């Protein structure tokens, strides 16, 4: 299966989500940015940096795409089984994300929206749901990911959120909600197979 994770705006959690999914699903990652923090976390058998043409024979891969949609990216997005669009719920981020959603929907209808770093009782999140509906995106699946230090610790521990949570102790307690969120995302991704 090919999965694309993209947003035009940086800092939305694309790479941490990609890395957690790659570890969980045992997939490789293709990144389209010449400098990627993933170089410090994946070996050459699990990471391909492709700033130009992207091989189309790859399978069981996650594409970590930043920036606007190039012709090479459009081909990949079109053949992806699902496109995940993560975003932080702040006005400037949501505005750019709306552009990204419209651009992706013109190529692939299998889109999952992932509001990222959601806090309990977040009023901005509630307002964002109204905005999603106003723009006609309320038919798209939505899997919010709660704010958690687990996202940064994926890079430190080199483990999935679920693995860190299963170790018990404070990680077991603190990471249970974000682990549940990722389980919902993975179940939804698997439903597209």
Q: Care to describe what's here?
A:
- By secondary structure, the chain is α/β, with parallel strands linked by helices.
- The chain has a single domain (2-190), classed as P-loop containing nucleotide triphosphate hydrolases (Rossmann fold).
- The chain is 43% helix and 17% strand.
- Strands 3-2-4-1-5-6 form a six-stranded parallel beta sheet, with helices on both faces.
- The longest helix has 15 residues, at 91-105.
- It is globular and about 45 Å long.
**Distance separating the two termini:** 7 Å
Radius of gyration: 16 Å
Walk across the major sheet and give the strand order.
3-2-4-1-5-6
Number of strands: 6
Poorly predicted regions are none
Percent helix among the residues? 40-55%
CATH class: Alpha Beta
The number of distinct helices, counting runs of at least 4 residues, comes to 8
Strand percentage lies at 15-25%
Order of helices and strands: EHEEEHEHEHHHHH
Structural class: alpha/beta
Question: What labels describe this entry?
Answer:
single chain; 193 residues; alpha/beta; Rossmann fold; 6-stranded parallel β-sheet; 8 helices; 6 strands; 43% helix
Q: How are the SSEs placed, and which strands pair?
A:
Elements: E1 2-7, H1 14-25, E2 28-31, E3 47-49, E4 61-66, H2 71-79, E5 82-88, H3 91-105, E6 111-116, H4 123-134, H5 150-157, H6 161-166, H7 169-174, H8 176-190
Helix pairs in contact: 1-5
């Amino acid at each position: 299966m090919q999965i694309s994770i993209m947003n035009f705006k940086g800092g939305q959690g694309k790479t941490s989500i990609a890395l957690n999914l790659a570890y969980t699903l045992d997939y490789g990652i293709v990144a389209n940015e010449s400098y990627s923090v993933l170089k410090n976390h994946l070996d050459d058998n699990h990471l391909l940096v492709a700033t130009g043409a992207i091989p189309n024979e790859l399978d069981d891969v996650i594409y970590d795409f930043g920036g606007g949609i190039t012709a090479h990216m459009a081909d990949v997005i079109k053949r992806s089984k699902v496109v995940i669009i993560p975003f932080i719920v702040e006005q400037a981020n949501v505005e750019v994300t709306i552009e990204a959603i419209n651009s992706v929907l013109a190529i692939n209808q299998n889109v999952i929206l992932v509001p990222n770093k959601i806090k309990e009782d977040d009023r901005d999140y509630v307002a964002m749901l109204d905005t999603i509906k106003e723009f006609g995106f309320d038919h798209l699946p939505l899997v919010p990911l709660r704010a958690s230090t687990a996202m940064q610790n994926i890079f430190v521990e080199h483990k999935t959120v679920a693995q860190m949570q299963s170790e018990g102790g404070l990680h077991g307690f603190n990471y249970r909600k974000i682990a549940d969120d990722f389980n919902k995302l993975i179940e939804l991704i698997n439903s597209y197979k």
